[in-house]
Amino acid sequence: MSKGSGVGCLTRIVGALLFGVVIVYAVAAITSPWSFHIGGRLTPFLTWSGYGQLVTKNGTYPLYISFFPYPHFSRLKLDGLRPTGGLWGHGWLCTAPGSIERLRLYGTIFDGWSSTEGSLMEFRLNEPKVIDMGQRRGYFDIYGRWQGQELVMNDRNRYSGTFAPACDWNMCR
Questions:
Q1: Which of 56, 71, 74, 145 has the fewest CB atoms within 10 Å, measured from its CB?
Q2: Considering the domain boundaries, does residue 5 fall inside one?
């Protein structure tokens, strides 16, 4: 084996990785151009994250979410708007003092082809299942619109699953 033989292999690996990155960005540019500028800020890694308060009849809870474009989404219109993309990610919700519950986030963006500004967003946050044994998962749906860098959301008084956090904002800090 010669000294320089590893360099050619490394060059091929780096080339393949760069090719893969170019493909991912090209697909995102064609299918989800809004993902490059989410919530009034540049998102070169195609990911947005933010935090806020989940206000329920039982109290107010800290919620952190992170999402990115996803190819599967609702095909149904919402408020007369057509869906333009899907979302997938995670949420973290304080459910008891010192206890954070990880949630799965699925959603759809409506009327947001090239930008999220003014776009309608719909999220479903599910309690994850480790093993599917027919048990029901708690969930809640939230809907909202971008207003600059803020995503203002509410549940529109719709049904949610058996999800019931058990602490208030001050207890979770």
A1: 71
A2: no
Which residues are CB-neighbours of 132 under 8 A, at least 6 positions away? none
Provide the number of structural domains found in the chain.
Answer: 1
What residues contact residue 161 under an 8 Å CB cut-off, 6+ apart? 127, 136, 137, 138, 139, 140
* Maximal CA-CA distance, the chain: 71
| Euclidean distance between CA atoms 136 and 138, whole angstroms | 7
Is 109 domain-assigned?
yes
Boundaries of domain holding 136: 33-172
Q: Is 15 part of a structural domain of the chain?
A: no
Where the chain has pLDDT below 70, the residues are 1-7, 130-136, 159-173
pLDDT for 168: 45
For residue 3, what is the DSSP state?
T
Q: Determine the pLDDT at residue 171.
A: 47
Residue 11 belongs to a domain = no
